[in-house]
Amino acid sequence: MKKIKVAIMGLGTVGGGTYDALTRNRDSIRSGYGVDVEVKKILDRSPDVLASRGIDTAFFARTIDEIVSDKEIGIVVETMGGLEPAGSFVLKALSAGKSVVTANKELLAKRFGELNAAAEKGKAGLYFEASCVGGVPVIRTLTESMQANRISEITGIINGTTNYILTRMSEDGLTYEAALEEAQKLGYAEADPTADVEGFDAAYKLSILASLAFHAKVPLSIVYREGITQVRPRDISAAASMGYTVKLLAVGKQNPDGSVQARVHPAFVPNSHPLASVRGAFNAVFLKGDFSDEIMLYGRGAGSYPTASAVVSDVVYCALRSAPLYPDFGKPATAAADFDSQYYISLCVTDKPGMLASVASVLGRHGISISKMQQVGAASGSADVTILTHTTGESSLRAAVAEMASTVGVGKINATVRVIK
Ligand code: HSE
Hints:
Elements: E1 2-9, H1 13-24, H2 26-33, E2 35-43, H3 47-52, E3 60-61, H4 64-68, E4 73-78, H5 86-95, E5 99-102, H6 105-121, E6 126-127, H7 138-144, E7 151-157, H8 160-172, H9 176-185, H10 194-197, H11 200-214, E8 224-225, H12 233-241, E9 244-254, E10 260-270, E11 282-289, E12 293-300, H13 304-320, E13 340-350, H14 355-365, E14 370-379, E15 382-389, E16 392-393, H15 394-405, E17 410-419
This protein binds L-homoserine (HSE).
């Protein structure tokens, strides 16, 4: 029977879940996969962290050196999060020839090159199924089940906190603030929710997933990012009245010329699209391959046990194989110059004859055709206008919106939201 000893760095939500899975299911892993995985050390601030979870403090390690100098430890699980000290600890472990399993999307998105080089030099593996979409095995699917395909699209709801907030706003009429407060009480959103609500978390994950899908490193610098803080209840109602649901989407597409679009932003999703029915804190990833056609993976993208499920899968995988099977995504992707979409625009205009015509003529000058246009209410001499465009280029749309904003009688552009098909 193969035996492998593991160290866990960071006994928080995910590290604690990993310890539980490795200990509670040790026998079933042993009998099912022929490998005996034993937790040997746990690094955290104090032995009290272990004691508070009922774990024997004999496992406690105070420093990374206690782990890297332990010749029995073959795999190091990093569940600390953040860039530092997690990054230095991972580099030390890899350089010492220990394979690393990490759930740290920010570290991977920002420093993959450095980590991968250390892994190659140390002849160690670097595994990160848990970094994207928690318990949903999307990385394994991309790397081991899609080889026949050129993947043209990966579109997902890959942040549970924002999907929870948008679901409560859409289905129960909560304001953004009330939905956020509820998400914080339920433990989805952090006290400082910026990483989730401003789309950083989804952007890190998209950078990783798109790199694997398109076999070209998609650096964070080319991932466009817009969060959900500007989404208004009235945009959600306008979407609903036209048969759409508002979601924070991560969209990765590879054009036939090899260039890549990678963007995180709110979008109107048609109610008939499978992603529209992904509710609450659930996540889903929609993939399109030229041979597989459409695939959708669905499940819990966060939380102690779902994320631990992905960590432990990597630990067992690593214990049974010598190296991960990632495609080469060393060469950087070129960012697509433009992309096409339909758009929803909400603006406020002076309520006087000819205003709708002048707004329509700005769009016309930029070659943008209108699918629907509606005046949704007038108060004290001003009116709210909503427009749904036909498909147009993002650059044309931006130019038109900039011109509209300086058109006499246009008060404010309240919202511009991409609409997917
Ligand atoms: N905070 C993330 C989410 C989970 O809400 O989906 C960790 O990436």
